[in-house]
Structure formats: structure tokens, C-alpha cells
Specification:
binds zinc ion, alpha+beta, elongated, 19% strand, two-stranded antiparallel sheet, 4 strands, 1 helix, two-stranded antiparallel ribbon
């Protein structure tokens, strides 16, 4: 399963938000689309690592959630929220 996760990170130079696929930030070297300054994956490594951890947790949640085919399962927030 390939999931393309788009993230936005601030450029350390011009502080513009760079919105790109997570993998794009893992390239050894790339340039900021806004200011054209050179960036290295190492500058974002910590942020990327944290993001990946939370993304993986989300995906796991999605997979685990999908295994419960019924809408409500054991989550009361799903169907009982509407009405009385
Ligand atoms: Zn920049």
C-alpha cells in the first residue's frame, strides 16, 4: 500500500510553507520553491520522523477501523451523535 502524504513545512530561510509529498522532503538535497535556497533532508529529519510516526499511527487506525465493517462498532460517537 502506497500512501502519498502531503505535508507543509516551513522553509528555514524564507519561512514560506513548502507543501509537498512527505517523500519529497526526504531527498538528500532540494531547493525551496519560494526562495530557491538549498535545503537538505537533514534539516527536516526530526520533523519528518515525528510526522511519519503520527502518519503511521493514523494509517494503523484506519486499517484497524476498516476491519470493523459495521458502522458503529463499539464507538458511540459514530451513529448516536444525531437526533436525541
Ligand atoms: Zn524558502
Amino acid at each position: 500500500m502506497s500512501v502519498v502524504t502531503k505535508i507543509a513545512l516551513d522553509c528555514p530561510y524564507c519561512h514560506e510553507a513548502i507543501y509537498a509529498a512527505l517523500n519529497w522532503f526526504k531527498k538528500p538535497y532540494f531547493t525551496c520553491p519560494a526562495c530557491d535556497k538549498g535545503l537538505a533532508a537533514g534539516q527536516f529529519a526530526t520533523i519528518i520522523a515525528n510526522l511519519e510516526r503520527s502518519v503511521e499511527a493514523n494509517i494503523e487506525e484506519m486499517i484497524n477501523g476498516a476491519q470493523h465493517s459495521s458502522c458503529c462498532g463499539n464507538k458511540s460517537s459514530c451513529c448516536s451523535g444525531s437526533g436525541n
